[in-house]
Specification:
Length: about 350
Amino acid sequence: MMSPQMTGFPPSLRRVLRPLADPARRYRHARLIHALRVGLGLLTSIALTTGIHLPHGEWASITLLVVIGGLQHHGNIRKKAAERALGTLIGAGAGLAIILQQSYFQAPLLSYALIVVACAICAYHAIGKGGYIALLSAITIFIVAGHGENAIADGLWRTADVLIGIAIALLFSFALPLHATYSWRYKLAEALRSCARMHTAIATDASLDKAVLQKAMILQGGLLVQFRSLMPSVAKETGVSMEQLEAIQHSMRVSISLLEVLAATRPREEHELDRAFLRNHLGDETRRINAMLIGMARALTYGVVARLAPRGSSRLERVAGEVPARWAGYVSLTQRLSGEFDALRQHLAAIADRWNI
């Protein structure tokens, strides 16, 4: 599937750039791409600040590391850069004011008191919403003003260096961007494939190893935590509302819980009647659910939205009178699980045009 960004390039160049434009490859090599991007950003910062002999140019490189050093996702970089810029402007303004009063009054104790008060105010706001901005404001006060003894020219140059660092960080965040949406898609696909494996094991093996199942459930729980941390960035990158992402998260959480209960309630196949029921009715439903799960996983991995098409409807409701009494609970849970996975499929299909980047 061709990336929309490549449609304007000549065919020969598209063939060369296709590996770089492939979201799956960018996801697999995210660490390497991030390391190269930060390295090139630092090289640019050093070349620019030393090339024009900018005083205190190291602060541009330090700022670049602060903004993108620990952030590989494009949505996070933009957010942190905006917060960094706002914190820098607040801190730089306060720092310059402290330098000005020091040069006028020549009272170091007053400068120390003003710095302490300003940083205490920042610390008050550092706990809670906007905490990162408040923390960076306090740090920038010291970058610009030191202990109040810096010259006004030094304060202005350091402010300029920090803003240059932010600009370079933003520039390189657009170079081969590592969208949080990629991580969200491929991790969700991994979770769906794991659900398919677990469901097949539960449906076909009454003596499923509980330790193996527990380990798989723990891994699924870890993936759910990762989804949660990615959601704010995914919402920014795609324009999908948090409510829609929460609906997907909820469906996954409920489905994983249902799989665990399903494994605990599955009766053993003790009679020919059990085996006949499984062969004639539950086999088709198991294959339908697994096809739906694998279809969603492939749609997320390869961007083939057609894989999100409905996989028919459950036939279990039509055979309610044929269900052996001791299988009734298991069948009811299977129907609920099927409905939850189908709801997840519909949620993904509804926003496919936005996550398929």
